[in-house]
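Record type: monomer structure entry
Structure origin: computed from sequence
Chain ID: A
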Amino acid sequence: MITQPVTPNPAGGDAVVLRHALIPVHGYGIAVATVVRMLDPEGKGAARMLVPQEQIPYGAQPVLVAESTVYGAVCVENMLRGWGSLPRPWLVLVADAPIPPAPAARYRIRALGERLAGVARLPYLPVLRAVEGAEEALEYKDVRVAAQKLRRQMEGR
């Protein structure tokens, strides 16, 4: 019998079903760490980043995380070329500046839309430049508001 993957609860108690398996398309940084915590607000393991070459756990929604740059869009395209028959992933685009993405990035992401379960956009969050970690980032109201919007968008509410 195949069951949903579970993540041990670091605080003890019951294990948590892994809902989101995050894949950073061009490196790990504070934005990826913050997206993991945004999708796992209680910090119990409902979302986690996959390590390189790790398979997507059965039942978990794959989530690609990229910056909203042309380079980020190219990396997403390259990853999707080899995606195969895996479930279509969500794409979380993290704004790298307080301006809209470059036209080439917008066009490329729009062209990839059929290969994605959905595209969620995080606004530029300047506080991410000044925090030591994702836990500290979530202390700021603008990050918490962005997290709520991200969860609502990905859960279809």
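Annotation 1: The first strand starts at residue 6 and ends at 7.
Annotation 2: Residues 85 and 115 are 11 Å apart (CA to CA).
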